[in-house]
Write a structure and sequence with these properties.
Layout lengths: L1 H14 L11 E5 L2 E7 L3 E4 L6 E6 L7 E6 L5 E5 L4
Antiparallel strand pairs: 1-2, 1-6, 3-4, 4-5
């Protein structure tokens, strides 16, 4: 019985390192064959109603707490995928 209580007391200590604000992986965006964005935690694809272009919105990896945008030209094709590890 005491071993069970000890396990319940240790559980919060084991879980304290779970989560956090830095994800295990990031994403990159390649447009027209060249890298347009590397290291973003997430990317939202938005349609711009004013001029009909696609806009990518992302948490700026270089400026914490800021949001960046990237306008995709209509003739470019973009690919979103995991950031390659080196």
């Amino acid at each position: 019985m005491r071993l069970r209580y000890l396990a319940w007391l240790c559980l919060p200590l084991l879980l304290t390192n779970c989560g956090g604000d830095k994800p295990a992986s990031t994403v990159s965006v390649t447009c027209g064959g060249s890298s347009a964005l590397v290291g973003a935690r997430s990317v939202d694809v938005l349609g711009d109603q004013v001029n009909g272009q696609t806009v990518l919105s992302f948490p700026d990896p270089a400026n914490r707490g800021q949001t960046g945008t990237l306008v995709v030209p209509s003739h470019d094709r973009c690919t979103i995928g995991p950031t390659p590890t080196s």
